[in-house]
């Protein structure tokens, strides 16, 4: 789950990097360990993913210098619009 959330953070930044003139973004994550890891440079589980996250974040900040980015915790994505669809797509992808 932790690594999956880290990959989700990377994918969110990738999508953000392709947008024009973005000023405010919130990324919602249901794994507090993944959120805490985004603010740390310590080695740990899935560190290679966090290295990639930080590298991509620098690129995003270069493209969007005034960006206000929030990474927020949401318990099990409760109340997040589109979550059910995202869960269905993830399950379909996992099944091949």
TrEMBL record:
The organism's place on the tree of life at top rank: Eukaryota
PROSITE patterns, per database record: RNASE_H_1
GO molecular function annotation: nucleic acid binding; RNA-DNA hybrid ribonuclease activity
InterPro entries: RNaseH-like_sf, RNaseH_domain, RNaseH_sf
Signal peptide boundaries: none
Domain RNase H type-1 per the UniProt entry, residue ranges: 1-95
Protein name: RNase H type-1 domain-containing protein
Organism: Dendrothele bispora (strain CBS 962.96)
